[in-house]
Structures are given as structure tokens and as C-alpha cells.
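Q: I'm writing up a methods section and want to include an example of the input and output format. Could you take the sequence below and give the corresponding predicted C-alpha cells, formatted cleanly so I can copy it straight into the document?
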Amino acid sequence: MARTVGLPIDPPQRNVNSRLALETGELIREIGGDDSSGAFHHAVSRAFFAQRADISRAETIIPLAEAYGATAAQVEDSWKERRFASRVDDFVEAAVRAGVNGVPAMAWQNRIAVVGMRPPDELVSLLRQ
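A: Here is the clean output for your methods example:
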């Protein structure tokens, strides 16, 4: 599906733990707001899916976070303190309740989540419902 819609993808042969990347996204949200956090998550996804980067490693996540206004020290401190762990836990719990059981996943308030790659016209149709 990615190739069909023109997305460059070269998925890794194994998954990695993205937990610290998710927590870092919350740090970025705190620093720069929702748009910055969304852009950070996009950069992390591109690194993982298109460049086979190990997003569980500090040397991958910190430079991405720095591009969105966080310092290495802020990222490392937030990880040590697990400052955003409960926020990510809440998001994961909400995702499970919404029916998310894979990636990619998209959800809108008060609606069932859409899981998996979908053709663009199908996504547009779902948004219009």
C-alpha cells in the first residue's frame, strides 16, 4: 500500500520498542505544541520505516528531538524521570479501547479507530462519515 500511494518504505526486519520515542513526543508537545509533536512523530516514523533507524536508541531520537526544540539534556532527563510515562500509558489505554491493534492507526474522537494502511480515497470517505 505504501508503494501504491508513493511513500518510501523500507521496513526493518524487526520491531523495536518505541516507548521512549512516544514519551519524547510528549516532551516536544510540551515545548512546541501539537503541531511540533506531530512533526516529530512524522520524523520518527520516517526514520523507522524509510531509513531503518532504531528508534529505541538515544542516538536516533535525540537529534530528531533537537530539531523540534528539545535539548539532549531535556530528553535524557525526561526519560530518567519517566515524566511522560503516564501520559503515554493513557494514550495506549485509549487506543486499545478504540480498537487499535496495529499500525498505522488513526482515530477521531467518539469514533472507532482505523487500523492499517488504507487507500487515500478510503480515508477521505471515512473522514466524511
